[in-house]
Amino acid sequence: MGDFFAIVALSLRANLRHRQGLIGVIVLAISIVPVFFAMKGTLQELLARASWDVVRPWVGNALGLSGYLVSLLCTVFLGVMLGVGALTQEKAKGAMEALLAAPVREMALWWAKVTACFLPALVLGIPATIGILWALNVTVIVPAVGKAFLPAPILATVLLGVPLLGLGLAALVNLVGLLVANPNLGSLAVVVVVIAVSNILPRLGLEFASWAFAYANMAAGGLILAGSVVAARFFLTKQRIILSARRL
Questions:
Q1: pTM attached to this predicted model
Q2: Residue 18: helix, strand or coil by DSSP?
Q3: Residue 194: which domain range?
Q4: Is the CB of residue 227 less than 8 Å from the CB of residue 86?
Q5: Nearest to 235 by CA among 246, 227, 225
Q6: pLDDT of 199 strictly over 70
Q7: Distance of alpha carbon 171 from alpha carbon 193, whole angstroms
Q8: What b/e sequence results for 65-104 when a residue is b if at least 16 CB atoms lie within 10 Å of its CB, and e otherwise?
């Protein structure tokens, strides 16, 4: 267990210092601003159209969409970016072989890498998402209707659904990164999965403020995570990790 936490701490420092991680944080900060102002304008337009009873479902859907976009940016895309660059550098410098020389199991190494990229994304993602939803309430909804409005399904999506999706994709990214010679190239497949999931789920006809949408994100994340665990048990060995590092 001590080796696990040591690898997590080492990987956390490497991820946060790597330029790809820094670029991810900067892109994230820049991307959140237009999402906020776009949704603020949309909510103001909706609330000006009709009474609260009429526009309430539309306001909930707009809030759900804004929370979903910010949560995806923070918890999913940032986690993917953090999980690739530092892993490539470790392989190129031979640090991966040094880690494997320690008395640590391959699965423990993998979960340590997953934790090191998912944890910062989660720590940044949840406060950022709740902050955007709170700011939209304070600046638009409360002045218009006199009370805050944040449906429980939206909270379930941003606090459980998207984080579970992010955890599953972080696990997949790091598994691919440990097994293929070039984690950057291998992670392109994972990025395709991220884009596909984030585009397919909203097109299922589900409302962003519905329980069905929250459950769909949880199910997608759970399936990806379960599939990654099964694949890791079959394919993740020290020999494969070392061979992938030596092919760089």
A1: 0.87
A2: coil
A3: 2-246
A4: no
A5: 227
A6: no
A7: 13
A8: bbbbbbbbbbbbbbbbbbbbbbbbbbbeeebbeebeeeeb
